[in-house]
Specification:
By secondary structure, the protein is α/β, with parallel strands linked by helices. Helix content is about 35%, strand content about 15%. It has a 6-stranded mixed beta sheet with strand order 1-2-3-4-5-6. Helix 4 packs parallel to helix 5 (about 105-120). It starts with a helix and ends with a strand. The relative contact order is 0.13.
């Protein structure tokens, strides 16, 4: 942490972005099933078709853990935190998930997380950005994922997306933001050398 801070402090006029995973977290979910993970009806941690585990945004410990990591990034001097997987899982045997103990819906839980995150990062002036897919941006919401552009737009500063139609995405962002500032759209392109990854478009 001190090494990164020293590097950023001495980098001059550099804008630094910390990209971090969010609720798709194998290790913390497995180690903290009851307190932080999405679980099955038998109480054991839920796993996807590729044996991945997810944190439950409705659980306070899951939100606390992710926010603590983001605050660490802010303390190191990053100007922006870019979050992947601000979402519930959308693939695998979703019917095995037990949501009966949740106190709020998926969108409400994710919105609470983003609200708490912004409050925690406010003293550092750190921007909050999300990586979202174009299908979600054009549709506006996802039932399984719990993502909602209308709910998220006032709480994020920018959106990173691989998009074939950036103009259409910008219109969606403007509509979703309403009277709030419109999040910036940062176009990215898929990186052929790393499946599922991407890099800045230009």
């Amino acid at each position: 942490m001190e090494s990164v801070k020293a590097l950023l402090d001495g980098a001059g006029d550099v804008y630094a972005v910390a990209r971090m995973g969010c609720f798709h977290d194998n290790y913390y979910a497995f180690a903290n099933m009851k307190e932080a993970a999405i679980c099955q009806r038998n109480g054991y941690v839920w796993y996807s078709g590729t044996s991945d585990h997810w944190l439950e945004p409705d659980k306070a410990e899951a939100r606390r853990y992710v926010i603590a990591l983001a605050v660490e990034c802010a303390k190191m001097g990053f100007d922006e935190v870019l979050l992947d997987d601000v979402s519930y899982p959308v693939s695998g045997k979703l019917q095995k998930i037990d949501y009966s103990g949740n106190t709020q819906g998926k969108t409400e839980a994710l919105t609470q997380f983003l609200t708490e995150l912004r409050q925690a990062l406010e003293p550092y002036g750190t921007r909050v950005s999300l990586a979202l897919d174009e299908a979600l941006l054009l549709a506006g919401s996802g039932a399984d994922s719990g993502q909602s552009l209308t709910a998220f737009a006032p709480l994020m500063d920018a959106v990173y997306a691989v998009s074939a139609d950036p103009a259409a995405v910008r219109l969606q962002l403007e509509a979703a933001a309403g009277e709030s500032p419109v999040p910036a759209l940062v176009p990215v392109v898929a990186a052929p050398q790393a499946e599922g990854d991407w890099c800045l478009a230009g």
